[in-house]
Amino acid sequence: MNARILAATTGRVLRQLRHDRRTVALLVLVPALLLTLVYYMYADQPTPPGQPSMFDRVALVMLGVFPFVIMFLVTSIAMLRERTSGTLERLLTTPLGRLDLLFGYGIAFGLAAAGQAAIASAVAYWVFGLTTAGSSALVIVIAVVNAVLGVALGLFCSAFARTEFQAVQFMPVVVIPQLLLCGLFVARDEMAGWLQAVSDALPLSYAVEALQEVGAHAEPTATMWRDLGVVAGAVVLALALAAATLRRRSG
């Protein structure tokens, strides 16, 4: 990869994103509004002595899940538009390589995710009183890595879609199973053996576990670092697969 080309690609994507007000609103406002909904859902739930509140447990996980889902949706549609409009075909006739393009997208949306995670975390911690044993900075780091995972998977899945509707159809296939099996609704060690095996193969499970480690421990744990490494490895793998399957234009 060429660093100068990579920086130019990242800048181009950020400029496009800045001028798309609806996407900016989706990235910035929606997570905060959804956290508000979660807060009032659990506001009157009793909390056992010495235990985190239901809001603390759910909101902490949501800070990682929201960026993953939103970035998957935004990126898969954005890349599809690049391809169907012919922009991607024109770009790939220049010295821009596929990895430069895809990693540029990953960096640009990762920077957007950092802003998104910071705003959502500020709302959760300062407005709604979210309490975690570990640092809020670690929560933001995990949320950003999770968002980049959504970007990478969105780039990969966009190669198999010809329309925006088809891109959205990948959400029930790629996103929802990970949400159901990540340990948010049922602890992973309480699942049936075959479901636990499937959960162990899904990167979102490790992102959720990393967030739960931050919620339960004042200092970063070995498990948290391992889980974060697994998610980062999944990002690199998804970007490599996206580069291998990237088409210049829709058939």
Could you explain the architecture of this structure?
The protein has 251 residues and is mainly alpha-helical. The protein has one domain (3-245). The protein is 75% helix and 0% strand. It contains eleven helices and no strands. The protein has helices spanning 3-18, 21-42, 54-84, 87-91, 98-127, 136-158, 164-168, 171-181, 193-200, 203-216, 222-245. Helix 3 (54-84) packs parallel to helix 6 (136-158) and helix 10 packs antiparallel against helix 11 (222-245). It is globular and about 65 Å long. The two termini are 28 Å apart. 39% of the residues are buried. Belongs to the ABC-2 integral membrane protein family. One of its GO terms (molecular function) is ABC-type transporter activity. The chain crosses the membrane at residues 24-43, 58-80, 101-128, 134-156, 168-187, 228-246. InterPro entries: ABC-2_transporter_component (IPR051449), ABC2_TM (IPR013525), ABC2_TM_bact-type (IPR047817), ABC_2_transport (IPR000412), ABC_transpt_DrrB/DrrC (IPR004377). Keywords: Antibiotic resistance, Cell membrane, Membrane, Transmembrane, Transmembrane helix, Transport.
Topology at a glance:
Elements: H1 3-18, H2 21-42, H3 54-84, H4 87-91, H5 98-127, H6 136-158, H7 164-168, H8 171-181, H9 193-200, H10 203-216, H11 222-245
Summarize the structure.
By secondary structure, the protein is mainly alpha-helical. It is built from eleven helices and no strands.
